Amino acid sequence: MYEGIVQELIDELGRLPGIGPKSAQRIAFHILQTESFDVSRLASVLVEVREKVRFCEICGNVTQEVTCSICRDPRRDATSICVVEEAKDVVAIERTREFKGFYHVLGGAISPIDGIGPDNLRIRQLMTRLADNTVQEVIIATDPNLEGEATATYLTRLLSSLEIKVTRLASGLPVGGDLEYADEVTLGRAFEGRRTVS
Amino acid sequence: MYEGIVQELIDELGRLPGIGPKSAQRIAFHILQTESFDVSRLASVLVEVREKVRFCEICGNVTQEVTCSICRDPRRDATSICVVEEAKDVVAIERTREFKGFYHVLGGAISPIDGIGPDNLRIRQLMTRLADNTVQEVIIATDPNLEGEATATYLTRLLSSLEIKVTRLASGLPVGGDLEYADEVTLGRAFEGRRTVS
């Protein structure tokens, strides 16, 4: 145990995700040896983010305005919506430069164990966005795990009543990986989804 | 890239030791979903630590006063000083409840590659503490790595001119470990330091 405030900082840091007691201690000592000015900046950015950042009223992405920069962009393709679990997935997909449509952030995935059902996700808002028939394709890009698959299945069923094409991101071998190290499920999916090349 | 302030927070967090871009992003999103009150508390503890915590004028340990709680404790044994690299080593040794003397924090170890020589460590202050002949034993508890060993060797030579017993923490097999998994150097040290048990 450290004296007073140092231990308090270690405890506070230890509450952040992915930071154990050892890392918290290491960061606390780093703070002690950092310029006051830099520490103040970190502290003020923390508070500012919490105060100023909110979720886009249309898609649920993070933004400092009422709507996010993607929803405000008139050059995006209004005929397709990509459905993701979290705002960080939007950033990951944007990085690929493959997709030019809009997004819809669910705010998680269906997970009965964690008590998260369809009503806890932004699914109603998605249905409202699809109501005016502008959107012709919904791309479901939830995570390729149990919760993500369950959410994808639920959405596929829900959307099947509408006249909209519903697609799901391909599962398969990660590019740059070794076939022999792929797990059976991934390798199975890669076979299922095989494409004719000539 | 995220919009404005979110990216700024990710960048700031990424400057902390042991936090890569992925962790920084995860923590930033955690902050977005944390109660404002909790975020403000973390921010104010950060600033407070940097403002209030300083280094003990006697031993170099962290403290909020002029001297640390150990140096102020009259029940500690004034005849022995344990020399460590960092304040976190003091906490680790205190946890063992094996040592009742005082500490001396060097503030690092000799490392020519990083440009750290004896003059950059609190060695002069240690010599001053030893001048009045109260201390009868100096226990060198620097890390059992290259820099720590170099520092220990330097200190041993320096202290050999004084009439003081100098000891070094034992190297050997970690308790609870498997002999077959010990590296050669550790196993070698364990042989060297073997004790007669009957």
Automatic annotation (TrEMBL), chains A, B:
Output the SMART domains linked to this UniProt entry: HhH1, TOPRIM
Q: Tell me, what is an example of a GO biological process annotation in this record?
A: DNA repair
Which keywords, in A-to-Z order, does the entry hold? DNA damage, DNA recombination, DNA repair, Metal-binding, Zinc, Zinc-finger
CDD domains referenced in this protein's UniProt entry, alphabetically: TOPRIM_recR
Question: Where is each Toprim domain found?
Answer: 79-174
The protein's matches in InterPro entries, at most eight in alphabetical order, are given as: DNA_Rcmb_RecR, Hlx-hairpin-Hlx_DNA-bd_motif, Rcmb_RecR, Rcmb_RecR_Znf, TOPRIM_dom, TOPRIM_RecR
One GO MF term, please? Answer: zinc ion binding
The record's annotation in Pfam families points to: RecR_C, RecR_HhH, RecR_ZnF, Toprim_4
Zinc finger (C4-type) residue ranges? 56-71
Superkingdom assignment: Bacteria
- Task of the protein: May play a role in DNA repair. It seems to be involved in an RecBC-independent recombinational process of DNA repair. It may act with RecF and RecO.
- Could you say which protein family the record assigns here? Belongs to the RecR family.
NCBIfam families on file: recR
Protein name, per record: Recombination protein RecR
